[in-house]
Design brief:
heterotrimer, A mainly alpha (about 300), B mainly alpha (about 350), C alpha/beta (about 525), A: mainly alpha, 14 helices, B: mainly alpha, about 75% helix
């Protein structure tokens, strides 16, 4: 038991914040897409795309910021495919999302072999440079947070997304389109355009989550998203489709992973496989407890058909 | 020639599906071009490897067998609007149960052992589908996420069991099952198939197809499943027990995926090996969709994807074998996009009648 | 051209096809500025379609649309809104998770600082319009909490915000109580006096006579007449609508109080309490008895517990407390189910046949056995008896004049009236002791209405008890032997036939005291 308590240190706190970044970014993306009424199961694959594109861009240009740009472009491209299939062709959104995941796995593995001649991991890349903010960079937890551009960007995005959703006409229309698209349509709001926007934004955000993963490990590895896309969807459900609450829930899942890592590092008496299971079991438990039916946007997952 | 409406719908389904497959091959060709290879060469070699030699044909059957079973399982779920994405985990657990029974009760004679192992595979799948199924019915927990989580947990759990208790030294697999659990290979009857592990579980798969067809279209239970899938509200008001039926259907769906493991465990390696499922669970989704949730379509789709699966090993020298996943995904995307066109066509047919 | 001769709206030669069905055939409409004009016709006559064309939701195949004398082409609602045309639809188009003010400004939001929503200004504008037209609403209220009458006022508010001069209202009084209807008419008259042109799409002839200045009658997609209201009567309008003289009252014998007192009890509920699916309290101690051979009608504004009452009686919902007896046997909550209720002799014609009554993709025959599919005549555990099903279906199609009599056709392709007949046929074939029927003639044309009413009375005459829930007060009053008014989850009063009139009913429905 003692060794179990050993993990609760300040290091855990900063690890949590770090590890939560992909969960938060993807959860924000999931929320934006679903508030507009499009379910995006494909986020898992979009994370992979983002991770791979960032490594590709970084590797060949040597510039980590260009890598970020590549990732966002790649994520938005694949998200666009999902959007076309779901919005224009009104196909089943869950299946489309799963297909995007399968495609992402295939595409990344395919080009991994082509560019890096390996079936498991890419060449090594540097991450984003650390920023030195005077004052804060010395401090224990805040120092870690503020020295990482991605973490700061994530925090900024949480506020930006919340603001956009609840305090701008864009957000109002997005929510209307996810709740009652016909009502919005009769008022002249372009339902299709709004939904495209929601999906593309979710693609960009998920890709950023992938960037964090790739830069944190300084390479791309096959299948590195590890279920985070699905866990982020759970965070969204747990947060009742509110971006701020979803981010909080994502933090919680990040915490679970942080604990898992710490447990493995200090070597507890529990078999490693059971520690690995923690995030997945936790996800199921959370889903069982969340009342998802009543709080989802009413038109979520329902293709819109203009009469 | 005046064609009946049902036949017209059948034709359009086939036509559109074939067009979707063709479209995905065309897009796939672009990927092949990107790696500086001639797509025609690749596709020809693919065709050669699959259709022009008996070994290829046998391999196709071998790979198609578990796909038929997971395809049926997933299609059964789709009929009732259940998205069982946990076929992979259900197959792994079913496979483990089957193998474990196979080597733990080694003394049993074949006529007891074979049904026992098959039952074990089925029940393993049922067990693994139970948690998401019960959660869906009792709490409305979204089964897509829960079943995917169960997939991850299945891998970790079986990894644990094999690593700590059951593995043979220097391997990642368990001991062999008893001889009585071995199912014969097809090459015992068709010598041209020599070298391929295609086995009699193929017949089990076909039998399940017939059972599926009967169940869905000829029994009151099938009437209820389809009703729930089409309009759960009306089904409930009409007296159908939604929760009970959905639960049962989900469990059977899991069991069918569990049975898919028998192809490997009882007909091929005769032990449980980590990673034996090789994405069959996920491919089953494509099979169910391309097969339009219909047993005969599923056989066709399973053969198609089985052929591709074998074929990509053939072309591995030319092009990374991951092209099959890309093709798979493209087929799914094109098929579901084309569904809109099919729906519009059917709507027009219906209007002309009334 | 003299000013009075310029019409605010002029539609001529409008044709619109959906597949092979003509929704509008050379339809015409002329409305003068400032008029209150009624557009009447049966369900399916083409009134809604014509107005949706005017509002830019549909493009006509042929025809000319002139607004204020100028010919226009409308590609979307936005074009109509730009021309100052506003439409309030039959089914409200409101976003429940947003506030009144947010719903009002959606699509034309006031902006500050370039990208932020100026909610304060939105609220201000909304409040100003509310006051000017006496609409009585709270700008900050969430739509999910509004009453139906308030929702309708919000819809009107939305189009006034967009400075509409031409207002199209589709079946505006379908969900209102008599008192709310009076208030609504006052609002309409005020709008007209402010120079706004109002088009009322309705099938309620009494209201047409009460508030409109002129009427256009449509039948089967075409315009058959345009008359001044002053010269019209209910019968003259009905005759134009249907093409033949129409009988308004159904012939039947009323049950007297003495007869009913001697009758057996079929259904008895005591002190039912239940919670709605949204978590609010829906039934607050409701009690009632229904006797054999009577039609018990419940009048009430939607949302006062009728749906929950029906759900409990038909086994779709469990009450929080209270008891229920069917023919003397107690019902064991929380274990009831639709199946158990069917077995107890209760049949259910649900209020939304598309959502709850029929499986549109199933054939007529398959729908006719829904719920009875496990009976020995229709199946054995491992096999369906299709010949048995088809024989039964053919008989039902004949008995209930289902057209076309092809029971293999998809139910979704049948007309509204025939679809309802399928549901009625199915439920009555159970030979129930209690028939629960909700909104039986909603969206059904006059011919089918007469048929369904006759069947309900026949069922009662055969000794079945009937629980009738309807928003059409005239239907309740003409069919019921006893009438109950439901308000806030309780029965505010039970009256024998003839003991109470529409006015008083309306008052009780709004919570007033006798």
């Amino acid at each position: 038991m003692n060794e179990f308590l050993q993990i609760f240190t300040l290091a855990l706190l900063s690890t949590t914040v770090r590890i939560s970044v992909p969960y938060i970014l993807v959860a924000l993306g999931a929320t934006v897409s679903e508030l507009g009424g499009v379910v995006n199961i494909g986020l898992e694959g979009l994370i992979l795309i983002g991770a791979f594109c960032s490594v590709l861009g970084n590797y060949y240009t040597g510039n980590p910021w260009l890598g970020v740009l590549c990732a966002v472009a790649g994520g938005m491209f694949f998200a666009w495919i999902h959007a076309v299939v779901c919005i224009k062709f009104r196909a089943n959104q869950i299946i489309s999302g799963l297909a995007i995941n399968i495609m992402a796995i295939g595409v990344t593995k395919f080009f991994l072999k082509y560019f890096f001649h390996s079936s498991s991991n890419s060449g090594r890349i540097s991450g984003l440079p650390k920023w030195n903010i005077p004052f804060l960079s010395g401090t224990p937890v805040l120092g870690d947070i503020t020295s990482s551009p991605l973490i700061l960007l994530t925090i900024l995005l949480v506020f930006a997304v919340f603001y956009a959703v609840y305090k701008t006409p864009f957000g109002l229309r997005l929510r209307a389109v996810g709740e009652n698209p016909e009502a919005a349509d009769t008022l002249g709001v372009n339902v299709y355009k709004m939904r495209y926007a929601g999906v593309l934004i979710s693609g960009a955000l998920a890709a950023l989550g992938g960037v964090w993963l790739a830069y944190d490990q300084h390479q791309f590895t096959d299948g590195m998203s590890g279920g985070r896309g699905y866990i982020a969807l759970t965070a969204m459900i747990f947060g009742k489709w509110n971006p701020a609450l979803a981010a909080l829930a994502a933090l919680f899942f990040g915490f679970a992973e942080a604990i898992q890592i710490q447990l493995q590092t200090i070597g507890v008496d529990l078999p490693v496989q059971f520690i690995q299971m923690i995030p997945y079991v936790l996800t199921i438990v959370v889903l069982a407890g969340s009342l998802s039916k009543s709080t989802a946007p009413s038109a979520d997952g329902v293709p819109y058909e203009k009469e | 020639m005046k064609l009946s409406k049902t036949f017209k719908i059948f034709l359009i389904n086939i036509g559109v599906t074939l067009a979707a497959i063709l479209a995905s091959f065309i897009v796939g060709a672009f990927f092949i071009l990107l790696v500086d290879v001639n797509p025609i060469t690749v596709y020809w070699k693919l065709f050669e490897g699959i259709a022009l030699n008996p070994y290829g044909l046998a391999q196709t059957l071998f790979k198609a067998t578990p796909l038929i079973m997971t395809g049926l399982g997933i299609a059964l779920g789709f009929k009732a609007n259940i998205f069982n994405i946990g076929a992979e985990g259900q197959m792994v657990v079913g496979g483990f149960a089957c193998a474990w029974l196979g080597f733990t009760f080694a003394g049993l004679p074949a006529f007891l052992m074979v049904p026992l192992c098959i039952l074990g595979a089925f029940l393993g799948g049922v067990l693994w589908a139970a948690v998401p199924a019960i959660l869906k019915v009792k709490t409305g927990a979204h089964e897509v996420i829960t079943t995917i989580m169960m997939n991850f947990i299945a891998l970790a759990l079986t990894n644990y069991l094999v690593t700590y208790f059951f593995h043979l030294p220097e391997t990642v697999h368990t001991q062999l099952t008893s001889q009585t659990a071995f199912l014969p290979r097809l090459d015992q009857y068709i010598s041209a198939f020599k070298g391929s592990p295609a086995n009699v579980t193929l017949f089990l798969a076909v039998a399940l197809c017939v059972a599926f067809w009967w169940l869905i279209w000829k029994t009151p239970y099938g009437y209820e499943i389809r009703a729930i899938g089409l309009n759960p509200s009306a089904a409930e008001t009409g007296g159908i027990h939604i929760k009970r039926t959905v639960l049962m259907t989900f469990l059977i769906s899991g069991g069918l995926s569990g049975l898919a493991a028998t192809n490997f465990i009882m007909g091929y390696k005769h032990y449980f090996e980590e990673g034996f499922s090789q994405g069959v669970g996920f491919m089953g989704i494509a099979v169910a969709l391309v097969g339009q949730n219909n047993p005969f379509g599923i056989i066709f789709a399973a053969l198609l994807f089985g052929a591709l699966s074998h074929g990509t090993l053939v072309i591995n020298a030319l092009v990374p074998k991951d092209i099959i996943q890309i093709l798979q995904a493209l087929v799914i995307l094109f098929v579901i996009s084309a569904n809109l066109l099919i729906k519009k066509y059917i709507a027009r047919l219906n209007e002309d009648r009334s | 051209m003299k000013p009075e001769e310029i019409f605010a709206i002029e539609l001529s030669g409008v044709t619109k096809r959906f597949g092979t069905i003509y929704a509008n055939k050379n339809a015409e409409l002329k409305v003068k500025k400032g008029e209150i004009h009624a557009l009447v016709g049966e369900n399916g006559a083409g009134k809604s379609t014509l107005m949706k064309i005017l509002y830019g939701m549909y493009r006509p195949d042929t025809g000319v649309i002139k607004v204020n004398g100028k010919a226009v082409t409308l590609k979307s609602p936005k074009d109509a809104i730009d021309l100052k045309i506003g439409m309030v639809h039959q089914h409200f188009m409101l976003v429940k998770t947003l506030t009144v003010a947010e719903n009002v400004v959606l699509g034309e939001e006031p902006v500050k600082n370039g990208f932020a929503l100026d909610y304060a200004r939105a609220k201000e504008e909304t409040a100003r319009l509310i006051k000017k037209f006496n609409l009585i609403l709270d700008p900050d209220a969430l739509v999910s909490g509004l009453s139906v009458g308030e929702e309708q006022r919000l819809e009107i508010l939305k189009i006034l915000y967009r400075k509409a001069d031409i207002l199209i209202l589709d079946e505006p009084t379908a969900v209102l109580t008599p008192q709310e209807i009076k208030h609504f008419f006052d609002i309409i008259r005020k709008l007209s006096s402010e120079g706004k042109t109002v088009v009322l799409i309705t099938h309620k002839l009494k209201e047409v006579l009460a508030v409109s200045g002129s009427v256009t009658v449509m039948r089967q997609g075409a315009t058959v007449a345009r008359v001044e209201t002053s010269g019209a009567t209910e019968s003259s309008l009905a005759q134009l609508m249907v093409g033949r003289p129409v009988v308004f009252q159904v012939e039947r014998a009323l049950r007297t109080k003495e007869e009913l007192d001697k009758s057996d009890m079929v259904l008895s509920v005591r002190d039912l309490r239940a919670i709605s699916s949204k978590g609010h309290s829906a039934l607050n101690g409701l009690s009632l008895d229904i006797k054999k051979g009577e039609i018990f009608g419940i009048a009430g504004v939607e949302g006062n517990g009728q749906s929950e009452l029906v759900e409990i009686i038909t086994g779709l919902k469990q009450p929080v407390s209270g008891s229920m007896n069917v023919r003397g046997k107690g019902i064991n909550f929380p274990c009831s189910s639709p199946r158990k209720m069917f077995d107890a002799g209760i049949a259910h014609i649900p209020e939304d046949r598309h959502k709850k009554g029929l499986i549109l993709d199933y054939s007529v025959a398959e729908n006719l056995i829904l719920g009875r599919h496990r009976e020995p005549a229709f199946s054995s555990p491992m096999k369906m008896n299709f010949p048995g099903v088809d024989a039964f279906a053919a008989k039902m199609a004949g008995d209930y004049s289902i057209y076309p009599p092809r029971t293999d056709l998809r139910a979704g392709g049948m007309s509204g009236g025939n679809q309802q007949k399928i549901v009625v046929a199915r439920e009555l074939s159970r030979e129930p002791r209690l028939l629960v029927v909700s909104q039986p003639t909603r969206g059904v044309d006059v011919g089918a209405i007469e048929f369904i009413h006759k069947k309900i009375i026949e069922t009662r005459d055969r000794g079945c008890a009937v629980l009738l829930i309807s928003a059409e007060l005239s239907e309740i009053l003409s069919l019921s032997d006893r009438v109950g008014v439901i308000y806030r989850g309780q029965l505010a009063g039970i009256f024998g036939a003839g003991e109470i009139g529409e006015e008083q009913l309306g008052l009780l429905m709004m919570g007033g005291k006798q």
